[in-house]
Amino acid sequence: MVLSRFDDYPIHQTPEPVAMPASSDKDVYERYWFNGYSTAGDLYFGVGTALYPHLGIRDCGLSLVVDGVQHAFHASCRAVGDPVDQVVGPFRLEILEPMRSCRIVLDDNETGVTCDLVFEGRTANVEEPRHSWGGAIRRTMDATRFTQLGRWSGWMEFEGQRIEFDPASTRGTKDRSWGLRPLAGGDSRGAPSPPAQNSLFFLWAPLNFDDLGFHYQLFEDSEGRPVASVGALMPTYDRLDDLPGIEDPATRPMRGHGHRLQFDEGSRLAHTADLWLDAVEDGRRHEVTLERLFTFRMKGIGYHHPEWGHGMWKGELAMAAESWTLADVDDHAFENQHCQHLVRATYREPDGGEKVGIGALEQLFFGPYRPYGFEGAIGRSG
Questions:
Q1: What confidence tens digit (pLDDT) does each residue in 24-81 have?
Q2: In this structure, what CATH number is given to the domain that contains residue 37?
Q3: Which helix (H) or strand (E) segment is 95 a member of?
Q4: Helix, strand, or coil here: 254?
Q5: pTM beyond 0.85
Q6: What residues have CB less than 8 Å from 5, skipping those under 6 apart?
Q7: Which residues span the domain enclosing 370?
């Protein structure tokens, strides 16, 4: 069945039904991604779910770091039914109010991992520019996304431990994206791309302060030249009804991204970051310093996971749970390169004032990167 309930609305972008992607590329995807963390800095969780229309697969992941251990739930199934019914076995994502609030439910299942969570925006949404990445042979990424900072309520259970989330002290991010993105398995056809075209330097820092949202995103090539970037300072709102709309006219766009990272000895893992942006309206500089509290591995929700990578066929319905101790993670393994650090953030205003908040610093560094002396796929010199 290709027709869906949305074909009754005047929203078509091609002559095909809404559920039929405009591209025939097998890497077409629709993804929802969230993170959440306590303002005390003692826990962090991530949630992701996606539809791959040309693969006939839906998958999801839920992962929590608490007390020095990362717990993870994975599930995958055949994609059937209406594309807006975002269900993977016991997992489901409900859009309560579009662009404002969502509910994530994981019902009782064989792994013992369950949750009932509600995300509400405390900022409006920021559209990020279209990301196109790849060389002359093949475009490996071509996607659009928007980001929203918010608060969480509800609960989660892992291994018999129940954690309650208070919206007054649990903040996070929603990241909604669609388009083309490299999926598990890759594509071995054709000539290999030159090494420089396979390089990726990516930083993403959505940060929550009491009265401010700070958004920083940057793609650079192997020489440190910007490929795509977005930055914004966003007003925050205490009540969902106070949000001014899908986007906020009071959001301040930024440009002129800069960074200075400090790394763990012998690795690419950042432990401290100074980031800065210049306001479009007046050119004044806005800076943040980020101090790592601990690291969340994105493989917990499928990114580069050797068994539960995005878009893998696992059967009609499959699920599993696992956990690992943060201290035992191999920082040099390929599957652990993509990560988010829970960070304490200090924001310095142009007039000298400071605010302290919390958020995430995501890093994904593959291939050579001259400014920091990175060589090879994941090695580091200097």
A1: 888 999 999 999 999 999 999 999 999 999 999 999 999 999 999 999 999 999 998 8
A2: 2.40.370.10
A3: strand 91-97
A4: strand
A5: yes
A6: 82, 84
A7: 5-20+29-182+197-380
